[in-house]
Design goal:
Elements lengths: L9 E4 L3 H12 L7 E4 L5 H10 L2 E3 L8 E6 L3 H7 L7 E9 L6 H8 L3 E6 L9 E7 L5 H12 L2 E5 L5 H10 L1 H18 L4 H21 L4 H8 L5 H9 L5 H18 L3
Parallel strand pairs: 1-2, 1-4, 2-3, 4-5, 5-6, 7-8
Antiparallel strand pairs: 6-7
Helix pairs in contact: 6-11, 7-8
Length: about 270
């Protein structure tokens, strides 16, 4: 278990789907709930339950008498510019600000909150079950101990990669930030195709879900690369080969994935504001 004591007081701004997922992972990994302050005008019901059950402090506006060790900004990019100036008072000499907002650049974050050690990061919702992946980039004010602390926080909910080139974060967002949605949509599409092939609804859904769960777990546990795992399913001239001739054909998955990732990366750049 990672020692997250140095991460408190931790102020989480925005306790929605992403902030909530990370918080659930941190609490699971020993973050002291009494050291957490949540700022959210109207947290979703499941979060309100967690707040009450774990004794966290919930406020609807930034407290005036607190300097945070870590401020995690997890509001929508569209409201970040309005929220950031109000957080400036929480920043003390040791504070590190970690933003998860898609598109919001380090420059833009600093323009909002003022001069501070800031990490721009892109996590994903599997953080909720400790299986996320986050890519992070730091501004010049982030010290080595702060980087170690942020790495510990992010590592408590999954894998962590640091990059030096901020521009990469748009493509990261398009691959791993949004990526879980692509996989969930794959489950939906497989179930629908199963229904159209004649399976009863419930069975089609069960098969699609269990297949992606199992394939994901196999990928997680196996030392083999995805191409080898794919080949292991594919008998010569068998059923999988017939399907892959479609999926890996000219109008198959790759051009669609290229277009989807390009669209998401473009949107990330637009969200800079
Ligand atoms: N969802 C995901 O998979 C990922 C999201 N992100 C990023 O995380 C951020 C949050 O996204 P997500 O969790 O999906 O969105 P949500 O809408 O679920 O969460 C945002 C939360 O912030 C609250 N909020 C709104 N205004 C304020 C305010 N002034 N002060 C404090 N809290 C406020 C919202 O309340 P209300 O609903 O009442 O407006 C909501 O509870 C975004 O910037 C997104 O780009 C990054 C990676 C993955
Ligand atoms: O859809 C979004 O904009 C956010 C960022 C990555 C995942 N969800």
């Amino acid at each position: 278990m990672t020692d997250l004591r140095a991460a408190t007081p931790l102020v989480l701004v925005g306790a929605g789907k992403m902030g909530g997922a990370m918080l659930a992972g941190w609490l699971e990994n020993g973050l002291d709930p009494k050291g957490v302050v949540l700022i959210d005008p109207a947290p979703p019901p499941e979060m309100a339950e967690l707040i009450a059950g774990r004794g966290m402090t919930h406020v609807t506006a930034p407290p005036s008498d607190l300097k945070a060790a870590v401020i995690v900004v997890a509001v929508k990019p569209q409201v970040a510019d309005a929220v950031l100036p109000g957080l400036a008072g929480l920043v003390g000499p040791g504070t590190v600000v970690v933003s998860v907002a898609a598109g919001k650049t380090l420059e833009r974050l600093e323009a909002g909150i003022g001069p501070a050690a800031i990490v721009r990061s892109m996590p994903n919702t599997p953080a909720q079950v400790g299986r996320g992946i986050t890519v992070a980039v730091a501004n010049g004010r982030v010290t080595t101990p702060q980087k170690v602390l942020v790495t510990a926080l992010l590592a408590a909910v999954g894998k962590v990669e640091w990059v030096a080139e901020e521009a990469l974060i748009d493509a990261v967002t398009a691959v791993s930030g949004s990526g879980p949605a692509y996989v969930f949509h794959l489950v939906e599409a497989m179930a629908e195709a199963g229904r159209r092939a004649g399976l009863p609804d419930a069975l089609a859904e069960k098969l699609a879900r269990a297949t992606v769960e199992g394939a994901g777990e196999l990928l997680y546990q196996s030392p083999l690369d995805p191409a080898t795992l794919r080949k292991n399913v594919t008998s010569p001239n068998g059923t999988t080969a017939a399907a892959l001739a479609v999926l890996m054909g000219e109008a198959g998955l790759q051009p669609i994935m290229d277009a989807a990732v390009a669209a998401a990366a473009r949107r990330s750049r637009e969200l800079a504001g």
